[in-house]
Design a protein that fits this description.
The protein has helices at 50-56, 88-92, 106-109, 116-126, 133-146, 152-155, 165-177, 195-212, 223-229, 247-252, 257-264, 304-308, and strands spanning 6-19, 22-35, 39-43, 65-76, 79-82, 99-102, 183-187, 215-220, 232-237, 240-246, 314-317, 320-322. It is of the alpha/beta class.
């Protein structure tokens, strides 16, 4: 059940990567709120800053990246914590326990040298949910059963290379939910999975959300997944949020030209379309992004003000925010 209680407030989050080629302005002044019990989706093309935003929430930005500015307020039992002001030891108390991740590539997020049971139990042991790894492995069987892993008693002894892609993704979900997190960040959880397994994984995330009462931050480029999973949606382009609204408004009354372009590029099985519309041009370099609105070189409605002035994210109607001069 979605409430009106904010569980996460992100304000002016800015992350840069300092490379030899120049400063990559990965995300610039990203702001949004997440409410307790909802599924909030960040959607956009590859490279728009979705994953960087999600990682920055718990300071998971590695060199040469740096969180330049911003606040991330986490609300818990009447207490407000600015996650970006915590030290490394302090943030670990929240990361993986109260705010957990399902990463997009289980092949790289699972360690090939350790058994599945060990990796699930480690998530429990680190946060003192069990007294030993051995006890954690016993708990891991129940966790794997919860995520519908076939024959979990046997799978705890397997290594990642012995599992299929769908099974490995179930393990990463198991690690994510092991400590009953309040916020579950699912970063492209169905990437590289076939369509049937994708549906199973998405249904599993829905079920886990209902069972544990978690809030889900879903990162995807697939508008079909957004329609199926999300309550509210933030559309990102070139490191900025360009539109934010509930999922029905995004699909029924999109305002930003980029949002409309994304939706026109999605096949509709109920309508006969000879040819899908593509968004012209390419994603701009984030080392030297376009002046003004970053979408203006690809926008057929762009005017002089779009090329000179950065549009602010403004509320055009209740709960519907758009960054556009049009």
């Amino acid at each position: 059940m979605i409430g009106t209680e904010k569980i996460l407030e992100v304000k002016d989050l800015t992350v840069h990567f300092y490379t030899y080629a120049g400063v990559v302005k990965a995300i610039e002044k990203v702001s949004f709120d997440v409410y307790k019990g909802e599924t909030f989706a960040l959607v956009g093309e590859t490279g728009c800053g979705k994953s960087v935003t999600a990682r920055a929430l718990t300071q998971l930005i590695e060199s040469p990246g740096r969180i330049v500015e911003g606040e991330v307020y986490y609300h818990r039992d009447g207490e407000t914590i600015d996650l970006l002001k915590l030290g490394e030891e302090e943030i670990r108390e929240y990361r993986g326990k109260e705010i957990a991740y399902i990463f997009q590539d289980p092949q790289s997020s699972l360690d090939p040298l350790y058994s599945i049971g060990y990796q699930v139990s480690e998530a429990l042991f680190v946060h003192k949910m069990v007294k030993s790894i051995k006890e954690g492995v016993k708990r891991a069987v129940d966790i794997l059963r919860t995520v519908l892993m076939p024959d979990p008693e046997k799978r705890v002894s397997n290594y990642p290379h012995e599992l299929s892609g769908g099974m490995k993704q179930r393990v990463t979900i198991g690690i994510g939910i092991a400590n009953n997190p309040r916020i579950l960040i699912a970063d492209e959880p169905t990437t590289a999975l076939d369509v049937t397994v994708q549906a199973q994984i998405l249904n599993l995330i829905k079920e886990m959300k209902e069972r544990y009462g978690a809030t889900v931050l879903l990162i995807t480029h697939d508008m079909g997944v957004v329609a199926d999973m999300a309550d509210r949606v933030a559309v990102m382009y070139a490191g900025k949020i360009v539109e934010l609204a509930d999922v029905f408004t995004i699909f029924k009354k999109p305002i930003h030209p980029y949002t409309r372009g994304l939706l026109k590029a999605v096949p509709n099985p109920l309508v006969k379309i000879e040819r899908l519309e593509a968004i012209p041009g390419t994603v701009p370099s984030l080392i030297n992004p376009p002046s003004g609105c970053r979408f203006n070189p690809r926008c057929n409605q762009a005017t002089e003000i779009c090329r000179s002035k950065v549009p602010e994210l403004e509320e055009v109607e209740d709960g519907h925010f758009v960054a556009c001069h049009g």
